[in-house]
Every structure is written in C-alpha cells, then in structure tokens.
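User: Amino acid/amide ABC transporter ATP-binding protein 1 (HAAT family). Structure?
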Amino acid sequence: MITVENLHRHFGGFHAVDGASLTIAEGSITGLIGPNGAGKSTLFNVIAGRLPPTSGRVLMDGEDVTGLPPHELFKKGLLRTFQIAHEFPSMTVRENLMMVPPAQSGETLWNAWFGRRAIRDEEAKLLARADEVLDFLTISHLRDEKAGNLSGGQKKLLELGRTMMVDAKIVFLDEVGAGVNRTLLNTIGDAITRLNKERGYTFCVIEHDMDFIGKLCDPVIVMAEGKVLAEGEAAHIMENEAVIEAYLGTGLKNKGAA
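Assistant: Predicted structure:
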C-alpha cells in the first residue's frame, strides 16, 4: 500500500526524518511509536503531502506520489488526521460530515442558479450518508450539536467519521488518544477495528498509549532520531533492548532486570 524509501526531511541542520524506510501493508493497522521528537508527525506530514521531502520517495500502490499536494492524495484515498482535531466549530456534527466530499454540485454558481434539484438530491444523499456514519460511530445523538462543543474524544470520533464520507483507502491517525478518556478511546479503537475488518480500511496510527497500540496494531514500527529503529509485533517490540533504551527509558529496563 505505502512504501517509504530512504526518506529525509531536514529543517536547516536538524534532520527530523533521517533516512527512514518502511512499508505499510494493505489491510493492516500499523502502529508508529517513538519518543517525542522522533520524527513521527513529520513523517506523516511528508507522506500526506503537507511537507515536501528533502530526499527519498513515497510510493502508494507502486505509484510515486512523492510531494503530491494533500488534495491530490485525498482523491487517491489517502487521508490524515491531526493530534488537535480540525473541526468546523460553529457547524453541527452532521454538517461537518457533509462538508467533506469534494466537487459538490452546490459549489458552482451555475448549479446554484439552474441546478437546484441536483443540489437537493445530492444533499439528501449526503445527509443519509452522514447519518449512517454517525450511527456506525455510535454518536448519532450528537448529530445536531455544534462541533465546537464536543469533548476531545468526540472530536476524534468526528474526524474518523469524516474519513468515512469519502472512499478512503489509507488513513493516518496522529495521536488519536491524546486528551481522550479511556471509555471513548475504546470506542475509537472499536471503530478503527470495524472499519479495517468490515470496510477494508488500512490505518497507520501514531500513539503513546502502549496498551492501546498493543491491542489494536500489528505490526508496530518504532522511530527514534528520525530513523526506523525496529518493527514487529507489539509484544516483541516491548522486549527489544534498543527500543527500551530509546523509547521506554533505561529506568524501565533496569526495573525489569532487578
């Protein structure tokens, strides 16, 4: 699905991503972990077209998509969410979902004047799709709530719902658990699993909650200092000496040895 080849992203003399190579297999829920400053979010931003790479390549289904802008990658089914949700706060939850699909009929002046029936028909379909998404995510009771009034976890569910309004192939989730209580985090995890198994979504997830990663993701990729340090099942990653040193900390390593 996604192949990253010797990717570099430099900011002056700082090498945020420093020769990273990895593969995200189609149909997987791949975890991406590492300490703060490891380059995870920068890697996401390069893959998703928000930042150009200094060098290296990104392939999607064998096609070189390096440096394509986000809207072009969006059309190909590659979507990215953010640690801080990007909702339209003054619009309702349902309206936020209905905004997602591109090239809607009502966006052109001609249709606004002469294609009102087509606009109504399209809006009816979008409304039905939005309600289906809300039911899937078990937040239909929030459909008429202003998005700005949602809790952090509810906003993360809304962002996940926005990926369901288009034909997403792969979704990059950046710290989906940040600021989310355990109950809602479990709901988000269940939704990700269902989207993966029932609708064929591929996911790559940045997250610091190792319990969440361990239950949800296989494989897990570890980054440190801009490089890929290790890859494997979560249980094996937790036992990797290099990972313990770089990510989990020498204190945990020494505790385990005591």
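The chain has two domains: 3-84+166-248, 88-149. Confidence is low (pLDDT under 50) at residues 250-258.
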